[in-house]
Amino acid sequence: MPDVRLASPKGRWILLTTVLGSSMALLDSTVVNVALPRIGRDLDASLAALQWTVNAYMVTLAGLILLGGSLGDRYGRRRVFVIGVIWFAAASLMCGLAPDPNVLIIARALQGVGGALLTPGSLALIQASFHPDDRSRAVGLWSGFGGVGAAIGPFLGGWLVEGPGWRWVFLLNVPLALICVPVALRHVPESDAGPARGRFDVLGAVLGAVALALLTYALIEARSASVAVWVTAVAGVAAAVAFVYVERHRPNPMLPPDIFASRQFTAVNLVTLCVYAAFGGFFFLTALQLQVVAGYSPLAAGTALLPPTILMLLFSSRSGALADRTGPRLPLTIGPLLCAAAMLLMLRVGPDANYLTDVLPALLVMGTGMVTLVAPLTATVLASVDTARAGLASGINNAAARAAGLVAVAALPLLTGMGPEAYRLPAAFNSSFDKAMPICAAVLVLASLLSATLIRHRPTPDCPHPECRTHGSITTPPLETGEVEPASRG
């Protein structure tokens, strides 16, 4: 049994290590969007290259995150976590030194591989190390500090872009890793490797990532309607079909098809796909809209985007407690509608937009909607499967959210007619933004309808509670391990 106490020096070192590791990935998920216009100008990149700067990272992270968690369980959580931190830092260095968009995109894909190793490992280290009496408090501190990191990310990104330059958005990860790795090796105990249970589903992970990459490429390059785009699209569909076939026939699949026998689990993942597709498109385009059209500096744009994260950080745990009493259907129906309203309010953000009257109201409504729905969504995912599969269910839901976000970033410019130079042309970008927000709002209305019709009103008795009660990320739902608390009877 784990026996490290939170108040001990070793407990504080473990908490510091996990917070530093998870902060690297969290910071990258929030600061890169703010840096995109400056990256585009400095590297003479097209809009497609900026899309890939975001999506290359998301493709490998979404495709490999389930495999990353399994590697930690098999070979030791500290070992895989440290490898992930080193890998992530090395890829970040490559991003920071990239001489052209192609190198940056390759480095971002490599960053995603590192993120798939360290992201599941940070929480798993807490679960494997702390005494059960201290575990909930340790997870609470870890998620709270992670939320603070997510909150300062856009501000920090804007400051770096305006000051030392956009390359420091990536280079900042190197000193964080230089602190994190020695502390982990010296102060964090290695968890026992789990028993060998079959072979890893490497083929499934590779097919999933390849399918995402090919379909994303086809969406981003679809404007050309070339033979290469059609061939890529067909290959992407073939890879997706092969992925489903492999997962149905392997003895130890990464994504067991029978987990979708739960109607509630299937429904909540459909809601997740809609919600995080809208969120991914919204935050990608809004960071550009504020700078390209409204004339905000990178620092001003990053600071402007803080309200949703701050609201999530302050109120997500209370939202989860309220949903325990009301059941998940009501917040999962109302939350997406609030977010949809926020996206329609963003239509007021145009040239010379006033922050207090045009931008802030929309972001406050957006944050309120996110507070309303994110915690209940996570709780519903865990409650829809057996306790023994809670970690797997959370991993699938997290990967689904990331995949939805990358598809949205790829598809929205195509659907709204953005040209390759749109981010350099304020009038053209503004026109496309005004088309994109209603599309995102419509997807959120669909999420609300799915919740109202498919989600059970009351949770099942003794279902597991999320351990991450405080959440600050605006791009994905919290990732849980299998060590979740059973709910008390109400």
TrEMBL record:
Family matches, as InterPro entries: EmrB-like, MFS, MFS_dom, MFS_trans_sf
Recorded superkingdom: Bacteria
Keywords for the protein's UniProt record, in alphabetical order: Antibiotic resistance, Cell membrane, Membrane, Transmembrane, Transmembrane helix, Transport
UniProt xrefs under CDD domains: MFS_MMR_MDR_like (cd17321)
Location of region: Disordered: 461-490
Location relative to the cell: Cell membrane
Transmembrane segments: 12-36, 48-68, 80-99, 105-126, 138-160, 166-188, 200-220, 226-246, 267-290, 296-315, 327-347, 359-383, 395-416, 436-455
This protein's record includes keyword Transport: yes
Gene Ontology molecular function, alphabetical: transmembrane transporter activity
Signal peptide annotation: none
GO cellular component terms given for this protein: plasma membrane
Alphabetized Pfam families for the sequence: MFS_1
Membrane topology, as annotated: Multi-pass membrane protein
PANTHER family the record matches: EXPORT PROTEIN (PTHR42718:SF42), MAJOR FACILITATOR SUPERFAMILY MULTIDRUG TRANSPORTER MFSC (PTHR42718)
Name recorded for this polypeptide: DHA2 family efflux MFS transporter permease subunit
Organism of this sequence: Streptomyces bauhiniae
